[in-house]
């Protein structure tokens, strides 16, 4: 119904016990399908002495079924003539090819069938509809279409909703600013860092993106859309009233998105994915709301290359019974990704999450949101150096460094290294911004 705020009311408002029952049944079918059709899953489950019919309860799923992880798929990718790890359909069923961004190592190839592209497109309709987006509204994409699936899936969602597509691929940033001002799209899609970069470019050109009448900025690939200080900067710079975050994992097409009422986190789109939280060290399930652990996902949209009980290494906090006015019963992730289990930084006994650092950097006047985190272990303990650009060329770097250092100490309970840089010192990225430089992995 056009006047109903829910894209799919029966599932978006279903009680938790109903959702869990549906999840278990879907997972059982997916396990059986994968065991029959994927050599990788047959090897994994045979090695664990598990047959599909053994998974009868959640206890079986949590404690008997083995996890899968990226190295499993990379190893299978190396042995398969198709070049895809974990395939459960013939390679000629693949219509589009992508690969991971490689931020944690080697590329993992990803293949999608026509059905999977159509199914993944539906994930975005829940949030589009909830934010008042309707068929015929226009959306501008300010990125080049490449091998990273992230913003492609948003494009599929826009087509599924019958939105008018305005493609800014191949254009320079100044050209994109002028196109947006001329075309006046309702939605602009990009990474948060790049969208803020466009605000800077517009100012340098004597232009103001607030004049474009953009209602919503959205995208993914970075945590900024759900970080309060970054959201505020985006709304102020664009004159937008809505910021929509989309948390996705390319391998699983796992997508969680924000509802209209609560912009500091995202709901898991439980029609297309199951997820739960696990202890990143032991793998034990953490089934109570509010616990911080690793996000473990099972995708219902990637049958050609199934990902079941897949370790994302993303650290999340899960609220299984959200109640902030939207009516969605799907699990909510406040703050979205709080950090990475393989990027855990413990500074003198205190866990420091990158999103917390971003929010605190934005709380010091005179600094920009362009920063890098450099992690080292020169001795027995981790250390973190935060490099951040000043907003003005003539800024007092010493004073800003002192303020930020004290800001970290008060709010994190620990001191971090601080280095203030001149404006435009750090690189700008159109897609995922590289913020974390972890020298510990290189033995430095």
Largest sheet: 8 strands, mixed
* Shape-level CATH architecture of the largest domain: 3-Layer(aba) Sandwich
Approximate shape: globular
Number of domains: 2
Strand content: 15-25%
Low-confidence stretches: none
The total beta strand count reads: 20
- According to CATH, the homologous superfamily of the largest domain is ANL, N-terminal domain
CATH domain topology of the largest domain: Rossmann fold
Number of helices in the DSSP assignment? 13
Please outline what is shown here:
The protein is of the alpha/beta class.
Q: How does this structure look, described?
A:
The chain is an alpha/beta fold and 444 residues long. It folds into two domains: 1-337, 3-Layer(aba) Sandwich (Rossmann fold); 344-442, ANL, C-terminal domain (GMP Synthetase, Chain A, domain 3, 2-Layer Sandwich), CATH 3.30.300. Helices cover 30% and strands 22% of the residues. The protein is built from 13 helices and 20 strands. The strands form five sheets. Strands 4-3-5-6-7-8-9-13 form an eight-stranded mixed sheet. The chain has a four-stranded antiparallel sheet with strand order 10-11-12-14, with no helix packed on it. A four-stranded mixed sheet has the order 19-18-17-20. Helix 13 (397-412) links the parallel strand 18 and strand 19 (417-421). Helix 2 (16-37) crosses helix 3 (39-47) and helix 12 (354-361) crosses helix 13. The longest helix has 22 residues, at 16-37. It is globular, with a radius of gyration of 22 Å. The model has no long low-confidence stretch (mean pLDDT 89).
């Amino acid at each position: 119904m056009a006047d109903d705020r829910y894209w799919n009311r029966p599932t978006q408002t279903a009680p938790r016990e109903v959702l869990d029952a549906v999840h278990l049944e879907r997972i059982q079918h997916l396990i059986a399908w994968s065991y029959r059709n994927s050599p990788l899953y047959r090897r994994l489950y045979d090695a664990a002495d598990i047959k599909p019919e053994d998974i009868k309860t959640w206890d079986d799923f949590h404690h008997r079924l083995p996890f899968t992880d990226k190295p499993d798929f990379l190893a299978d990718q190396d042995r398969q003539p198709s070049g895809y790890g974990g395939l459960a359909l013939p390679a000629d069923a693949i219509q589009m090819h992508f690969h991971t961004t490689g931020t944690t190592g080697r590329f993992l190839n990803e293949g999608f069938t026509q059905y999977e592209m159509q199914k993944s497109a539906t994930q975005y309709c829940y949030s589009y509809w909830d934010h008042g987006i309707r068929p015929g509204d226009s959306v501008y994409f300010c990125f080049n279409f490449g091998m990273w699936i992230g913003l492609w899936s948003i494009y599929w969602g826009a087509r599924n909703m019958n939105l008018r597509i305005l493609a800014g691929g191949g254009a320079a940033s100044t050209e994109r600013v002028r196109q947006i001002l001329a075309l006046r799209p309702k939605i602009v899609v990009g990474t948060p860092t790049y969208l803020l970069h466009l605000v800077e470019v517009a100012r340098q050109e004597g232009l103001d993106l607030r004049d474009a009448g953009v209602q919503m900025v959205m995208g993914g690939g970075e945590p900024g859309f759900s970080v309060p200080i970054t959201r505020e900067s985006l709304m102020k710079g664009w004159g937008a009233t809505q910021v929509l975050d989309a948390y996705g994992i390319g391998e699983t097409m796992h997508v969680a998105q924000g509802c209209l009422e609560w912009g500091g986190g995202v709901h898991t789109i439980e029609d297309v994915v199951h997820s739960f939280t696990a202890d990143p060290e032991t793998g034990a399930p953490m089934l109570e709301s509010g616990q911080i652990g690793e996000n473990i996902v099972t995708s219902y949209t990637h049958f050609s290359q199934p990902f079941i009980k897949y370790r994302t290494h993303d650290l999340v906090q899960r609220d299984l019974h959200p109640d902030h006015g939207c009516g969605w019963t799907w699990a909510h992730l406040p703050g979205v990704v709080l950090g990475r289990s393989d990027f855990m930084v413990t500074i003198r006994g205190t866990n420091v999450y990158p999103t917390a650092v971003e929010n605190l950097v934005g709380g010091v006047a005179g600094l920009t949101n362009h920063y890098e985190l450099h992690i080292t272990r020169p001795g027995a303990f981790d250390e973190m150096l935060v490099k951040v650009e000043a907003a003005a060329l003539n800024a007092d770097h010493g004073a800003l460094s002192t303020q930020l250092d004290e800001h970290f100490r008060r709010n994190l309970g620990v001191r971090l290294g601080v280095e203030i840089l001149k404006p435009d010192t750090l690189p700008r990225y159109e897609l995922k911004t590289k913020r974390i430089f972890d020298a510990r992995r290189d033995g430095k």
